[in-house]
């Protein structure tokens, strides 16, 4: 079936149109059969001549022949339309499937690009002491640290780097960036003395 509108994708309304056409053809076939029924119940194959070979005089031969001819033509049309309906439905489903696959691929690509745009973490928060400067700033266990003041994945060597930054920043807010649940989160952290050990906790 050539797609309607020259290469235009099949739409639901195209299918509905085809189904309407099928219904019309079925109604016409039914009308023709009723006409034959009205002619003394002559069907598609009963003889139109009498025992002596003369045309039957009890029926309208012209009407019967026309009805039979129309039924044959309409049945062919019906078969063709049914094939079109089937093909159109296949195309419609294939397109839905294709669209679904495309949407999934786009969502995946978006998730991938978000992951790629997240910076590299160099440390992970294992514990946060309650009431500590780290806790007050909103730092959470499992936060992955990507920036701690001037320290990032590119210049981080060991935890001593962070300790040095903390000592130099006592009482001053430090900008800390972490990855939490796949998203980048900024935390303002001010190292200071508190009841527990260290300046952060």
Automatic annotation (TrEMBL):
The keyword Ribonucleoprotein does not apply. GO terms for cellular component: cytoplasm; nucleus. Pfam families: Nas2_N, PDZ_6. Keywords: Chaperone. Residues 90-182 form the PDZ domain. It comes from the Eukaryota. The keyword Chaperone applies. GO terms for biological process: proteasome regulatory particle assembly. Belongs to the proteasome subunit p27 family. Interacts with PSMC3. Part of a transient complex (modulator) containing PSMD9, PSMC6 and PSMC3 formed during the assembly of the 26S proteasome. Acts as a chaperone during the assembly of the 26S proteasome, specifically of the base subcomplex of the PA700/19S regulatory complex (RC). During the base subcomplex assembly is part of an intermediate PSMD9:PSMC6:PSMC3 module, also known as modulator trimer complex; PSMD9 is released during the further base assembly process. PANTHER family: 26S PROTEASOME NON-ATPASE REGULATORY SUBUNIT 9. This is 26S proteasome non-ATPase regulatory subunit 9. It comes from Loxia curvirostra. The gene is Psmd9.
């Amino acid at each position: 079936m050539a797609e309607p509108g020259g290469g235009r994708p099949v739409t639901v309304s195209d299918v509905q149109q085809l189904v309407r056409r099928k219904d019309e053809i079925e109604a016409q076939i039914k009308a023709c059969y009723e006409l034959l029924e009205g002619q003394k119940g002559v069907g598609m194959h009963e003889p139109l001549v009498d025992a002596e070979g003369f045309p039957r005089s009890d029926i309208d031969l012209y009407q019967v022949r026309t009805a039979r001819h129309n039924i044959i033509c309409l049945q062919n049309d019906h078969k063709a339309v049914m094939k079109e309906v089937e093909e159109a439905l296949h195309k419609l489903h294939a397109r839905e499937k294709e669209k679904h696959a495309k949407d999934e691929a786009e969502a995946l690509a978006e998730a991938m690009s978000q992951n790629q745009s997240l910076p590299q973490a160099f440390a992970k928060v294992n514990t946060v002491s309650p009431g500590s400067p780290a806790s007050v700033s909103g730092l959470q266990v499992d936060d992955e640290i990507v920036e701690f003041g001037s320290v990032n994945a590119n210049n981080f060597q060991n935890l001593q780097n962070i300790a040095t930054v903390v000592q130099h920043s006592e009482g001053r807010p430090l900008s800390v960036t972490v990855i939490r649940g796949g998203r980048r989160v900024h935390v303002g952290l001010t190292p200071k003395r508190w009841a527990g050990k260290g300046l952060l906790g």
